[in-house]
Design a protein that fits this description.
The complex is a heterodimer.
Chain A (H helix, E strand, L loop, with lengths): L4 E3 L2 E4 L5 E6 L6 E8 L3 E9 L2 E4 L8 E7 L2 E6 L8 E8 L9 E2 L3 E5 L1
Parallel strand pairs in A: 2-11
Antiparallel strand pairs in A: 1-3, 3-8, 4-5, 4-9, 5-6, 7-8, 9-10, 9-11
Chain B lengths: L3 E4 L2 E5 L4 E7 L6 E7 L5 E8 L4 E4 L2 E6 L4 E6 L8 E10 L2 E4 L3 E6 L1
Parallel strand pairs in B: 2-11
Antiparallel strand pairs in B: 1-3, 3-8, 4-5, 4-9, 6-7, 7-8, 9-10, 9-11
Classes of the chains: A mainly beta, B mainly beta.
Chain lengths: ~120, ~110
């Protein structure tokens, strides 16, 4: 199993530019999660999907952030326009939801730097 | 709102020592608790998952316990090795599908 795949691994962009982060969950998993990690705030859940449907996006910081999951094997997190405070590591995780308790598997993350 | 705290924030021990990492949470109505390891610049690796009905889980030199009523979990690492050096995070699932993460314990095992 290839695990959760994220691309790019590193992204450096200028303020105001659009950034798109990509995630391929583990095959067969039906839940997908986007997290952001910073030194100040730790790991925060941004949004999660179940069966490709967004369930809770209350963690999305503002309208500049949007996420989509067009099919079971692909999701994107877009920031438009990007700002320096968006600099962080963004993780994607997936799980097989079979009840209230299940394990989440994380991708390697995308390190985003906005200058 | 669930809050998760980990103590200590950082720990440095000589190789071979047994050690305990602590995790506490404010809302005892949880579904499960998960311990992760994070190496610098890397993603999170799941170490152990304890269901709310369980008291402990073991994997190799790792043992995690859960006392749901008191809102506490401990991760015990036996015979620590330099390769155990990493940041250890605990996370609780208490409503919906969300995981709430602790602040992490940065562990350094000296050869």
């Amino acid at each position: 199993d290839a695990g959760v795949i994220q691309s790019p691994r590193h992204e450096v962009t200028e303020m105001g530019q659009e950034v798109t982060l990509r995630c391929k969950p583990i095959s067969g998993h039906n839940s997908l999660f986007w997290y952001r990690q910073t030194m100040m705030r730790g790991l925060e859940l941004l949004i999660y999907f179940n069966n490709n449907v967004p369930i809770d996006d209350s963690g999305m910081p503002e309208d500049r952030f949007s996420a989509k999951m067009p099919n079971a094997s692909f999701s994107t997190l877009k920031i438009q326009p990007s700002e320096p405070r968006d600099s962080a590591v963004y993780f994607c995780a997936s799980s097989l939801q079979r009840g209230p308790s299940y394990e989440q598997y994380f991708g390697p993350g995308t390190r985003l730097t906005v200058t | 709102k669930q809050e998760v705290t980990q103590i200590p924030a950082a720990l440095s021990v000589p190789e071979g020592e047994n050690l305990v990492l602590n995790c506490s949470f404010t809302d005892s109505a949880i579904y499960n608790l998960q311990w992760f390891r994070q190496d610098p610049g890397k993603g999170l690796t799941s170490l152990l998952l304890i269901q709310s009905s369980q008291r402990e889980q073991t994997s190799g030199r790792l043992n995690a316990s859960l006392d749901k009523s008191s809102g506490r979990s401990t991760l015990y690492i036996a015979a620590s090795q330099p390769g155990d050096s990493a940041t250890y995070l605990c996370a609780v699932k208490s409503s919906g599908d969300k995981l709430t993460f602790g602040t992490g314990t940065r562990l350094a095992v000296r050869p």
